[in-house]
Amino acid sequence: MRNLKVDGIILKRKNVGEADRILTVFTKQFGKLSIKAAGVRKIASRRASHIELLNLVQMGLYKGQGMHVLTEAVSTESFSSIKADLTKVGFAYHICELVDGLCPEGQ
Predict the structure, then answer these.
(1) Which overall architecture, per CATH, does domain 3-102 show?
(2) How far apart are the first and last CA of the chain?
(3) Per-residue confidence (pLDDT) for residue 2, from 0 to 100
(4) Residues 6+ away with beta carbon under 8 Å from 46
(5) Mean pLDDT to the nearest integer, 39-60
């Protein structure tokens, strides 16, 4: 099955090239995944606002030969109450770093 629909929390993002990003997402079904989000740094991108850090996102993915490729993204929950408090954001980012560092890819 090449097309997947998953819900996940954005743990980390890294800029690649001129308009792409590599996202690290923690999902319930597949564990930690690396996803290529092509073209999301362009001004006209519809997916850019949905893939911010700490967002719970429903994503459509395509499994290519290498890593998964993001085809669609809809933000389910943005956790604005956490993002409004600096202390809570610090704790949330720390938890994201721990999950990213301790969980291997795909688990």
Answers:
(1) Beta Barrel (2.40)
(2) 19
(3) 86
(4) none
(5) 89
Q: How far apart are CA 64 and CA 79, in angstroms?
A: 31
Residue 1 scores a pLDDT above 70: no
d(CA 28, CA 35): 15
Where does the pLDDT of residue 76 fall: very low under 50, low under 70, confident under 90, or very high at 90 and above?
very high
Q: Which residues contact 30 (CB under 8 A, 6 or more apart)?
A: 4, 6, 106
**Between the CA of residue 61 and those of 1, 32, 50, 99, what are the distances in Å?**
11, 14, 14, 21
0.85 exceeded by pTM: yes
C-alpha 53/C-alpha 75 separation (Å) is 11
